[in-house]
Amino acid sequence: MSWSRHGAVALVALFLCTSALVAASGQPIGLAASESNFAAGTASVRGQATLFDGDPVRSQFLPTRLHLRDGSRYVLGIASEGAIYRDHLLLRSGSAEVASTGRASRLVASSISVTADQPGTSATVYAAKDGVTVMVRKGEVKVARLGSTRVTTLGAGRSATLRVNGREGLTVDSDNAVVAASRVQAAQIARLTDATKNYTCLETKANSLSRTYSSLSGQLAVAQVTRSAIQQRIAAGDATPADMRQMNDINDNMRTLTRTSFALSEDLGGVILQHHPGPGDPSSSHTIHGHTTPEHHGQHGHSAPPPHGHMLPPHHIPGAGGPGT
Questions:
Q1: Residue 303 carries which DSSP code?
Q2: Strand, helix or coil for residue 258
Q3: Which residues pair with 154 in a beta bridge?
Q4: Residues contacting 12, CB < 8 A, separation 6+
Q5: 48: burial class by Cβ within 10 Å (0-12, 13-18, 19+)?
Q6: N vs C: which end of the chain shows fewer Cβ within 10 Å?
Q7: Domain boundaries in the chain?
Q8: What is the pLDDT of residues 152-206, one digit of tens each?
Q9: Under CATH, what is the fold of the domain 31-174?
């Protein structure tokens, strides 16, 4: 009888301990918000969703903003996929912005860790089959292979494609980073263009970004071909002074194209539903930042009535880090 009593006590203690662990693991870690449908966990969501540790997240036509309780912030890009954890975002495909607003944010892609721990830092990370591309707009990020103590720092204005090299090292390729990022940007602009079928207010923005990308990609292609040809002549010892001058011009142009790509990256990460026709007046429009008709846009994260039927942007959603939260 004594053994049975002790055994029962032990089983109860084990049950309580297990229940506590389950409850702890089920605690929310943050909030996701987007103006278009997105997936969080196993559900398809529109507007906002509570995030739990390990939840897969997939954005569709517009970016998805991830606000964690610890203060870290991420923006999962258009047509991108990952998983959110308490201490990092795992990026599987597409892009994500990692930022520090006083709290370090860490992103992992293809066994490469990118950490923004300097306040004011913002960078976009692109995940592709041939490597991970990082564009640092402000501040700096620390990059390392998972499990390695070797750290590479990329400062503001730097872009690089990173590939795992050997046991602990990384290959840092700055020359082709913009080209690598442009491949992901192309897919995102195509998805944004698809969104205009349902969100006509996105047409102006989508067309503008498409024109920018078309010009950028065309100039990148010409620069790549020309630079490759000159490099071959340099290697063969056949380069002329005119070739060297042209190479300098190409390098100058690449710096300009890099700035354009940075701006395009920021624009794609910040796309929201902005302009809508005024009621009964197709020629007029207003913005979500100054509307005065509650029947056109709800105030608490709920859907607006037809014909719009979409959600408010994250900065109008209580608890998403915007005004009124």
A1: P
A2: helix
A3: 141
A4: none
A5: buried
A6: N
A7: 31-174
A8: 999 999 999 999 887 767 899 998 899 999 999 999 999 999 999 888 889 999 9
A9: Jelly Rolls (2.60.120)
